[in-house]
């Protein structure tokens, strides 16, 4: 019989994601996410009480305004580590973001929840690859300050799944598709070929994550009888989302399911 101190075993997948979501240790969070069972039932209609303290975060890194973050030359180990640390922090946030939509938003099809658990697992893999590479360089996650912009958007959209899906995977995370080629070039030019290979893995899988965002965003717009492009512009304004800037990785965005009309709108309006 389980000890009274043993937490109750999750009865369904949407409960199970709370354990890694609330975990404070970053490496352990990734491990717990990767070990989430695939065979748990999915209670799509369960309304789960807010457990508080979402997400669990380590004491380090210190979180500061993004304007307070400084870069250093790429020809120094610290300069490369700073850049890789920033990406690792984004991936850690992405684990929490994927897990958060699973417990928080009820009433979606089962495939929605399995999609986001798989995405969380891939984000955990990305974080683990980056963290191990930082350690091989003599650094670790937490050694440098970071910003909280991704989770700030999660907080702002916690009351509406349409806003969350519209503004996190297909806006904030899609920015990563645009930035990836330039970041990879910087690291490879500085001689870090291993980091370049990690970024190739991340880009390939992030295209799938953004594609899931596009797919479920359109599903939600259809359910609500909304025009996806007009609604997206309204969401950007209503939630004060960061303005997107060129150059855009149009090839990756096409693979991620953005329509030509959406890409033309992006180029014309900056949205």
Total helical segments: 11
In the CATH hierarchy, the architecture is: Up-down Bundle
Largest sheet: none
Distance between the termini: 56 Å
Assembly state here? single chain
Average pLDDT taken over every residue: 91
> Which secondary-structure class do the elements indicate?
mainly alpha
Tell me the helix content: 55-70%
CATH fold-level label: Ferritin
Rg for CA atoms: 19 Å
Determine the strand fraction and express it as a percent band: under 5%
Question: Could you provide a short overview of the structure?
Answer:
With 271 residues, the protein is mostly helical. The chain is built from 11 helices and no strands. It has helices at 13-16, 18-22, 26-34, 77-104, 110-136, 149-156, 161-189, 193-224, 228-238, 250-255, 260-269.
């Amino acid at each position: 019989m389980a000890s009274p101190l043993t937490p109750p075993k999750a009865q369904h997948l949407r409960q199970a994601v709370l354990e890694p979501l609330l975990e404070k240790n970053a490496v352990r969070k990734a491990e717990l996410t990767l070990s989430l069972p695939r065979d748990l039932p999915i209670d799509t209609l369960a309304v789960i009480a807010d457990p508080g303290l979402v997400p669990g975060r380590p004491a380090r890194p210190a979180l500061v305004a993004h304007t307070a973050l400084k870069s250093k030359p790429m020809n120094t180990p610290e300069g490369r580590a700073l850049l890789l640390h920033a990406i690792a922090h984004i991936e850690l946030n992405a684990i929490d973001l994927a897990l958060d939509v699973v417990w928080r938003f009820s009433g979606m099809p089962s495939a929605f929840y399995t999609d986001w658990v798989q995405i969380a697992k891939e984000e955990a893999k990305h974080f683990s690859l980056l963290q191990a590479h930082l350690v091989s360089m003599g650094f670790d996650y937490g050694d440098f300050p970071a910003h909280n912009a991704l989770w700030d958007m999660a907080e702002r959209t916690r009351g509406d799944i349409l806003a969350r899906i519209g503004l996190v995977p297909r806006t904030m995370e899609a920015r990563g598709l645009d930035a990836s080629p330039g970041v990879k070039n910087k690291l490879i030019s500085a001689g870090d070929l291993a980091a370049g290979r990690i970024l190739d893995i991340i880009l390939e899988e992030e295209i799938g994550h953004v594609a899931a965002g596009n797919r479920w965003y359109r599903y939600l717009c259809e359910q609500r009888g909304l025009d996806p492009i007009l609604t997206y512009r309204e969401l950007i304004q209503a939630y004060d989302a960061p303005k997107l800037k060129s150059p855009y990785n149009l090839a990756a965005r096409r693979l991620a399911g953005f329509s030509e009309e959406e890409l033309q709108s992006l180029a014309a309006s900056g949205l």
